[in-house]
Specification:
The protein is of the alpha/beta class. The chain is about 40% helix and about 15% strand. It is built from 16 helices and 17 strands. The strands form 4 sheets. It has an 8-stranded parallel sheet with strand order 10-9-8-7-6-3-12-11. It has a 5-stranded mixed sheet with strand order 13-15-14-16-17, with helices on both faces. Strand 7, helix 6 and strand 8 form a beta-alpha-beta unit. Helix 6 packs parallel to helix 7.
Length: about 450
């Protein structure tokens, strides 16, 4: 847990020597608490104090990296229990379980479906992260399956294997991709930790009991393994949520370093709806990685959309760049719509304009990411702001008319906007869904 300035001051030599560049040790301590300077600036810090300060500066939940390059997954490094306190930083990694019992053709088909799970929503690309190969008992099939996955996807890998020899062979061909080993138990810790050290890969530490899980991570640390993901095994959803919540609380509120790691959960149900519901619950509370079997686009999109919503900054809405956008083969006769720069609002309007097939200009006003009614109520979407945007974006250079279409919900500002802008103001539909017929009939 981070120390306060006064806590740090107690660890300093209190000589006010100014070698650090500050007038007093207290001033230096306050800057250390803000992470504005490094502890190396103090030449007289004792070894014990330096160790204590280094430990306090570590994040309560360790950052773990799986994979390499552009497709790597980083999980952990979270600092709060509740999103409204600050924000969540590392979006949950979503992966898919591939059974090694499938034929090579079957594995390729499943990977093809997984690789296509890419979507765009409110200007952001949503992607899945992991392919997990599950060992079924035949070492040869497992190695062939791992090779097929390596050849057919760039996603980060999870090796779900409890047989050391099969795992070693798989790591020989996949270690360059830094896969995650699933899973290490108290019984297999000695043997599996050797593999993790040899191939320099992260591991999943697994125990159904949190106290035993804590003891296992300490044992792994003693063996030189520090890149760890936690798992409490297969349990009913309510019990799994309890475990995930307690792990988070222990790390953040109790400074329990032995549980200060991201956690993994598996949603492995025959019913895809139940599976999606379980996975969604784990994303919400507080899994760093979720693995599932279903690869249907509807299931992936629902989970990716949920993840996107949870891992956006609640104090900073998704925004687009305020400017004049052209949709289709616009001309100087094309209509001009005005809306806010809240991403969801803009892309909803964009979708309806595209559906109308009427070439149109959309002027996005800077409302600090607020939607139409919210921005109007907050006086961010006003006749003055709209007029300023018309001039700033040189709208008169793009069209030969002076006719502006505003959202129906802010019809009350039409007269004032006409007076201030000198443009004819037309009140459009209240809902974006009414735009296609409105544009076609205008």
């Amino acid at each position: 847990m981070a120390l306060s300035g006064l806590d740090i001051y107690k660890l300093l030599p209190k000589t006010n020597c100014r070698e650090c560049g500050f007038v007093t040790c207290l001033a230096f301590a306050m800057q250390l608490a803000k992470k504005a300077v490094s502890i190396d600036k103090c030449p007289f810090l004792s070894i014990e104090a330096k160790s204590a300060l280094e430990a306090s500066s570590q994040p309560p939940i360790k950052l773990i990296t799986i994979g390499q390059g552009d497709n790597k997954l980083e999980t952990g490094n979270e600092t709060v229990l509740f999103r409204h306190e600050e924000k969540f930083y590392r979006p949950t990694g979503i992966g898919f379980i591939i059974e090694d019992s499938l034929s090579i053709a079957g594995i390729k088909n499943k990977l093809e479906a997984i690789n296509k799970l890419k979507f765009e929503r409110v200007g952001q690309e949503l992607n899945v992260n992991l392919a997990a190969i599950r060992y079924g008992g035949d070492k040869k099939k497992f190695i062939e399956a791992v090779q097929a996955v390596l050849d057919n996807t760039q996603l980060s890998l999870v090796l779900m294997c409890d047989q050391p020899q099969a795992l070693r062979e798989a790591l020989k061909i996949s270690s360059a991709r830094r896969p995650l080993i699933y899973r290490v138990t108290a019984e297999t810790a000695a043997e599996f930790s050797k593999l993790a050290q040899e191939f320099k890969v992260p591991v999943v530490a697994s125990s159904p009991d949190l106290e035993k899980l804590s003891a296992l991570t300490k044992e792994l640390n003693n063996q030189g393994i520090h890149d760890i993901i936690l798992d409490t095994g297969a349990k009913p959803v309510k019990d799994k949520i309890w475990d995930l919540t307690q792990i988070r609380r222990q790390a953040l509120k109790k400074s329990n370093r032995s549980l200060g790691y991201p956690a993994l959960a598996i949603a492995d149900m025959d019913d895809p709806i139940e599976e999606a519901m379980a996975a969604a619950t784990y994303i919400s509370k507080y899994a760093g990685i979720v693995l599932l079997r279903g690869t249907e686009p509807w299931e992936a999109l629902s989970l990716l959309t949920l993840r996107q919503n949870i891992y956006t900054d609640p104090q900073k809405p998704l925004q687009i760049e305020p400017k004049l956008y052209s949709v289709g083969a616009v001309s100087d006769k094309s209509p001009v719509l005005v809306t806010t720069n809240f991403s969801l609002t803009y892309y909803t309007v964009l979708g309806e304009v595209e559906a109308s097939k009427v070439p149109t200009y959309i002027m996005s006003v800077d409302t600090e990411g607020m939607s139409v009614l919210t921005a109007w109520a907050a006086e961010k979407f006003t006749p003055e702001k709209i007029t300023e945007s018309i001039n700033k974006f040189s709208v008169t250079d793009s069209v030969s008319h002076k006719r502006l279409i505003i959202p129906g919900y802010v019809a009350v500002m039409s007269g004032d906007l006409e007076d201030k802008s000198g443009w004819q103001v037309v009140v459009g539909p209240k809902e974006a869904s009414g735009l296609p017929s409105f544009l076609k009939n205008s």
